[in-house]
Specification:
Elements lengths: L1 H30 L6 E2 H10 L6 H13 L4 E4 L5 E4 L6 H13 L5 H12 L4 H8 L13 H16 L1 E10 L5 E3 L6 E11 L2 E8 L4 E6 L3 E10 L9 H8 L7 E9 L3 H8 L4 E6 L2 E9 L2 H8 L5 E5 L1 H16 L1
Antiparallel strand pairs: 1-3, 2-3, 4-5, 4-6, 4-9, 6-7, 7-8, 10-12, 10-13, 11-12
Length: about 325
């Protein structure tokens, strides 16, 4: 009988110790940082407030155990030791970037943005969380009203992880700004490979059975997605995602051509922004330089050139020069 009671009491103490350590860990994570350390007296007061009795020595031993298992508890050795959680999963500037991205994202609804920001703020102390809340104005940002887009993204993510195909319809807009299914409710079958953000839009990339090639779809325009049991067609070993993104997203679909552009000197920043720091350039004259680029010759590209208000001239190839002039003639005839 005595042995049974002893085991029960020992078990109770073990449970109490584990509970105490967990609460100390929570307190340090939520209530401390480098600018707001806590003393042993602060921790004892917190434990007492939630009904857990402890002594200074036991709390110090608990903190040592947290350190032993890898929790980054930093101790300032002053007249009385002060403790705080050091570098967590994210540094404060990193969390700030993520919070700002969640706030600005047009893909996320207001509800999803708030939920994501709350989760991000829970990763740091209450003091740093308060500083991160400064400047948050979700209502001032243009946000998606399509809650289904988030659900579609989750399904596509599952399809990628489980190597399965998905089927869906695709939304487009009529001249009256009404949504309708593209090509009379055509059902697309996609083997999704990955996701890409571009210009604050979220795309899924994969092999389309209908197109018989790698294509992109905007996630927020995918409708009625269904996960199939068909195995996905894998990406080829030589598939270059960076090259696909550069050709497809930067200038959109069109024949890939080697072009020479004559640009005014003040456009160097725009050329670097568009084509990267590896773009090949050489001086044309005192006011211009040549940029030699490989680009998808599409209407979007020609529209970008036109938007430079004569500061860019397409020099070659001849087919690109002709295509641009033809587009300008069609624009004048409307």
């Amino acid at each position: 009988m005595f042995a049974a009671c002893f085991c029960l009491q020992s078990g109770d103490k073990m449970i109490e110790k584990k509970s105490r350590i967990l609460y100390i860990k929570r307190f340090l994570e939520e209530q401390t940082d480098e600018d707001h350390p806590a003393t042993i007296a602060d921790i004892l007061a917190y434990l007492s407030g939630i009904g857990i009795a402890a002594h200074s020595r036991t709390v110090m031993l608990d903190i040592e155990q947290l350190m032993e298992i890898g929790i980054d508890v930093v101790c300032n050795k002053r007249r009385q030791n002060q403790y705080f959680i050091g570098d967590g999963h994210f540094e404060l500037p990193e969390l700030k970037l993520l919070v700002d991205a969640a706030q600005a994202s047009k893909f996320l609804t207001h509800k999803r943005s708030r939920a994501l920001i709350d989760r991000l703020l829970s990763l740091t102390s209450v003091y740093q969380a308060d500083s991160l809340k400064t400047g948050l104005h979700l209502e001032k940002h243009i946000k998606s009203k399509n809650e289904a887009a988030y659900i579609s993204a989750a399904m596509l993510h599952k399809a990628i992880n489980e190597n399965r195909r998905v089927r869906f319809m695709y939304i487009e807009y009529t001249p009256e700004m009404k949504k309708e299914y593209k090509h009379g409710q055509r059902v697309y079958e996609l083997s999704p490979w990955t996701f890409v953000w571009d210009d604050d839009k979220y795309y899924v990339i994969g092999y389309s059975k209908h197109h018989e090639k790698c294509v992109k779809f905007r996630v927020d325009r995918i409708a009625a997605p269904k996960l199939t049991d068909l195995p996905a067609i894998p990406a080829p070993d030589d598939f270059d995602l960076a090259a696909f993104v550069k050709a497809t997203f930067q200038m959109y679909d069109g024949p890939l051509l080697d072009m020479t552009l004559k640009c005014k000197n003040e456009l160097m920043k725009s050329i670097v922004d568009r084509f990267g720091e590896g773009v090949k350039v050489n001086i044309a004259d005192t006011g211009h330089f040549y940029a030699n680029v490989k680009v998808s010759a599409s209407k979007t590209f020609y529209g970008w050139v036109f938007g430079m208000d004569g500061a860019i001239e397409i020099v070659k190839p001849a087919e690109a020069v002709k295509a641009y002039r033809d587009m300008l003639k069609r624009a004048k005839s409307i």
